[in-house]
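Write out this protein's structure.
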Amino acid sequence: MDIGTHKQLFIDKRFFQICDGVELSMNLPTQDPDPVLIADRPWEAKGIGAYSTAFREPDGRFRLWYDALVDVGLPQEGARRLCYAESEDGIHWKKPSLGLIPFRGFTENNIVAPHLERQSTQGTTVYRDERAPADERYKLWSKFRPTDSQIADGLRGGLWAMHSPDGIHWQTYPNQPNPPNQSCDTQNMFFWDNTFKCYVGYTRVRETQNSEEAALAGKVAYRSIGRITSPDFRTWSPTQIVLEADEEDLNIPVPSRFDDQRPSIDYYTSCAMKYESAQDVYLMFPSVYYHWGEQGFPATMDTQLLTSRDGISWQRQGERRPFLQHGMDDEVHSGMIFANPWLIPVDDELWLYYAGMAHNHAAAPDDVGRSSSLFRARMRRDGFVSADAGFGGGQFITPVLQFGGNRLELNLNGSAGGWLQVEIQDTTGRPLPRFGLAEADPVVGNAISKTVTWKGNGDLSEVIGESVRLRFVLRDTKLYAFQFVSFQQ
């Protein structure tokens, strides 16, 4: 396995050729209790919706495209808007008056789409596309509903694609919907995947959502997540289902069961993305919808963490426990939680914004009001899953590797008495001279990037390109990532 100078994460047992006393653990983020964005404008009368997008520009600005609810219930003419906000620190957001799109006759608002007041857009994902020409630097996908009169004239709703030079002024690509027959009642994700050299999209799957179509596919109606690809963001492949309720989901214990053919769990949104900071890492933060009782009870959602090496085969982390959790009863995020793209690096942290709602999925429109806001979760860089050894210690040995850098750096967190050592072995398991456990200096403390040394020497230039194994010996320590980096003397 050639890992070059790429960062390596412990999202699975790839690096556990031999393992004793070390387990993989999901690490929960910190969910800040106070919302960072609330509904306080007339065009946000029903709150901040489930589907928003945030990222940080190269110049340091935080930008947000958020889902504003004028009304609830679908399909409904003019129900939702895509609005824009920006921030210097990612916490305090300004809603600028853009003067672009009318709302009740006035353009003094921060609405950027759709263009007509009686159109509706929902589930928008915005992506900064570095490969695109300047006038298409920003792309979006959104469920789009034309006005009633446009529908009567033959214009089709569905999943529409738009582009913009600045993220503010949006134009529709020709030949919409795009794809023409894709189910889109959620936040559909997309990005350019340099591994596969194509755009990858994660969408709602039509044949499991409609009862008749599900029956033709030998299924009952339920929500699942599909994957599609495109070389040009215009023509798309057939849909491949990559996440649906499996046997363990279908057999969860429940206190009562309403007479319904559907499973007790649906996967509502995906929030799937490639983690560009490491080699072969894809992340998904799907909202899991629980509805085993009459009228969809409890009709609530929280968010799990799934990982993948290719974006196709996914592994559920943390024994399916929630990654983003409900707040206390009666708090704004006590009913439903939706993770929103993208992960934003800030110093030694990653920030993930999410929509939190006090109501559940079965709430009557009059009960929704402004009971939804945007929140922030914070986690350690690369800290989704870690290789952990407890009080008694443990070790693991990797498969045969080749690397490109001359320094080994670790992202780790040890207790006061925790430590870690690394031995470099040949392919037969014998320690290399000067890099055995006897020479390995203990690595202690809590750091995002800490250099491994052997008797004070961290230079691995003589081993670059060799086939080796790494032996990690650790006690009371969490190891999140390792990376061979090139360091100039």
